[in-house]
Design brief:
Order of helices and strands: EEEHHHHHHHHHHHHHHHHHHHHHHHHHH
CATH architecture of the largest domain: Orthogonal Bundle
Protein name: Phosphodiesterase
EC number: 3.1.4.-
Structural class: mainly alpha
Number of strands: 3
CATH topology of the largest domain: Catalytic domain of cyclic nucleotide phosphodiesterase 4b2b
Helix content: 55-70%
Strand content: under 5%
GO biological process, one term: signal transduction
Number of domains: 2
Shape: elongated
Number of helices: 26
Strand order of the largest sheet: 1-2-3
Membrane topology: Multi-pass membrane protein
Largest sheet: 3 strands, antiparallel
Enzyme class: hydrolase
Radius of gyration: 34 Å
CATH superfamily of the largest domain: 3'5'-cyclic nucleotide phosphodiesterase, catalytic domain
């Protein structure tokens, strides 16, 4: 459904909210400079006016019902009742006049409003005739009054419907003024008011859109993304994503030299190779084959050294080397994809974004933030079993039971890594204050949990909503950037140069097929993209790029303009996959 953009000027100051200059909360603070039209608008929308009309509706309803049921018996007090009715009708007429004054011709676009005017007018005429009737023609007027009594009933029903609107409004207000409320609750209260404005009710398409906005915010689905794809070949990719979801400005130069290296086993050729680590075409596989130790240990310690973080953050380099060795050893070598080489690749991707794409500067990341980014990338798949969350949940794995089917692997990666960090010889945070450690831990948890693919669409929605202008101006924005960078690095393989992209694709599909074979063996539902007998690898890669990777980089492009290069490489790789179908 297409949504038109309606620009409604909103200003919130303390407990007073105005929309297009109309005070929604307090009409007794009316600005003297307001026009007469605005003053009348405020008066109509005021809650006390609504309450007064509601009370008059109740009184009028009682009188109308009593007069219809006991008309003959009440002849002795008919004059008093007529006068009472006349007074109430006068208020109704005043209300209608004020709405006509504000809405003008728009008011008469609703046939119900036109009927209101007619009914009020007829009721006035009947009562005036009743009051002025002589004894000679009293019988005729009496009969006429009985005939037109039905108009009183119609007016009563019409006003009763307005009273229901008042009650609905009151419910919204009650919802939004509880002792603990969020900004979204205040937005709901404002929208509830706007929806029930007379001029909105006369514009049905606009009212439907506002109701849709109200329902979306109330259901807490503001950041959910709807996927519309007619391509059959992409269906498995879409299902995979939906299936998962169901269950500080710095300007340092980056000097690279041998004295910064944490591992003395590196020779000049290795240093030369690492000097290219700020490039997106950096080949982690080449580094892995040329060094004695694991690439994860080398790149993690090396990148932290280039930022001089061991010294700045008072982290003993020997302790960190021991810690990162334990982390690297905890990755399962037999996994085709989720192994220490993948972790090293993600670390290098993060380093590239921090340096070449200026993420540190643009996102105003501190030294602790930078450390959090590199460390989170290093541990993000620690002890990954080679099977995804859905498999662990469907197979009743102990990890799924331990973490209640919620971000199972991500929670395990974090818990197991922090356990290592608290072991003797691996206490990398031992010189930090409690406050430093607490803040860093919160961010590390946040970043690693952001690699849970079930969060993909929601996180992109939040990122685009918060940072649509490309400006990172507060802590919330910084954390969103760090999370988006973490997620992007984790799934960035399709945007690498073609030869590297192809290697990673073969590895991940091999691991998927191993899971599919295991699911078939255990009589479990075979996960999407995991059936080696039905999946077309080139088509699946193109679908994955179209639906997930390209939108991710497009979102990141809002903040980091230099990632346009990654998008170009991604599009070139799609062409290569198309040619290999």
């Amino acid at each position: 459904m297409s949504r038109r953009k309606a620009i409604i000027s909103m200003t919130n100051s303390n407990d007073q909210t105005t929309i297009n200059g109309l005070d929604l909360h307090r009409s007794h603070h009316v600005n003297l400079k307001l026009s007469l039209n605005q003053f009348v608008s405020i008066l109509i929308a005021n809650k006390y006016s609504e309450f007064a009309i509601a009370c008059l509706v109740i009184i009028y309803s009682c009188i109308a019902i009593i007069r219809i049921a006991f008309d003959t018996e009440l002849l002795s007090v008919s004059t008093e009742l007529n006068i009472t009715e006349l007074i109430i009708l006068s208020f109704f007429a005043l209300e209608a006049s004020m709405k006509i004054f504000v809405l003008k011709r728009l008011y008469f676009k609703s046939w119900i409003n036109s009927c209101d005017i007619i009914i009020i007018g007829v009721c006035f005429i009947v009562i005036i005739f009743d009051l002025s009737a002589s004894s000679v023609r009293s019988n005729a007027v009496f009969k006429l009054a009985k005939i037109f009594r039905i108009f009183r009933l119609l007016l009563m029903l019409r006003k009763a419907s307005e009273m229901k609107l008042y009650k609905d409004n009151n419910k919204i207000k009650t919802y939004s003024v509880v002792s603990v409320c969020s900004p979204s609750d205040n937005v709901l209260a404002i929208l509830g008011k706007v929806i029930n404005f007379e001029w909105v009710s006369l514009n049905e398409p606009l009212r439907e859109e506002l109701v849709w906005c109200y329902d979306i915010i109330k259901s807490r689905k503001l950041y959910e993304v709807n996927i519309i794809s007619d391509a059959v070949e992409n269906n498995d990719i879409v299902k995979m994503g939906l299936e998962e979801s169901e269950i500080v400005e710095q300007n340092e130069s980056f000097s690279i030299n041998a004295t910064n290296l944490p591992l003395q086993s590196l020779d000049s050729s290795h240093v030369s190779l690492l000097s290219k680590s700020t490039d997106w075409d950096f080949d982690i596989f080449k580094l892995e084959t040329e060094i004695v130790t694991s690439s994860l240990e080398v790149v993690t310690s090396f990148f932290l050294s280039t930022f001089n973080l061991f010294s700045i953050l008072d982290i003993k380099q020997a302790t960190f080397n021991s810690f990162i060795h334990e982390i690297s050893s905890g990755y399962i070598k037999e996994n085709p994809y989720h192994n220490s080489t993948h972790a090293a690749d993600v670390v290098q991707a993060f380093y590239y974004f921090l340096t070449t794409c200026d993420a540190r500067k643009i996102c105003s990341l501190t030294e602790i933030d930078t450390f959090v980014c590199i460390l989170s990338a290093a541990i993000h798949d620690f002890q990954h079993p080679g099977f995804n969350n859905l498999f662990l949940i469907n197979s009743n794995d102990l990890l799924a039971i331990r973490y209640n089917d919620k971000s199972v692997l991500e929670n395990h990666h974090l818990a197991a890594s922090f356990n290592i960090a608290h072991e003797d010889g691996n206490k990398i945070f031992e010189n930090w204050t409690k406050e430093m450690y607490k803040k860093a831990r919160i961010k590390i948890i946040s970043l690693v949990l952001a690699t849970d693919f079930s969060r993909h669409f929601g996180d992109i929605g939040k990122f685009q909503s918060k940072l649509s202008d490309g400006i990172v101006e507060d802590e919330e924005g910084r954390i969103l950037c760090m999370e988006m960078l973490m997620h992007t690095c984790d799934v960035s393989n399709p945007s690498r140069p073609w030869d590297i992209c192809k290697i990673w694709a073969d590895k991940v599909m091999t691991e998927f097929f191993i899971q599919g074979d295991k699911e078939r063996e255990l009589s479990l539902p075979i996960s999407h993209l995991c059936d080696r007998y039905t999946v077309n690898i080139p088509k699946s890669q193109i679908g994955f790029m179209d639906l997930f990777i390209e939108p991710t980089f497009n979102a990141l492009l809002l903040v980091l303009p230099k990632t346009e290069k990654n998008l170009e490489t991604l599009r070139n790789n799609k062409k290569m996959w198309s040619e290999s179908k």
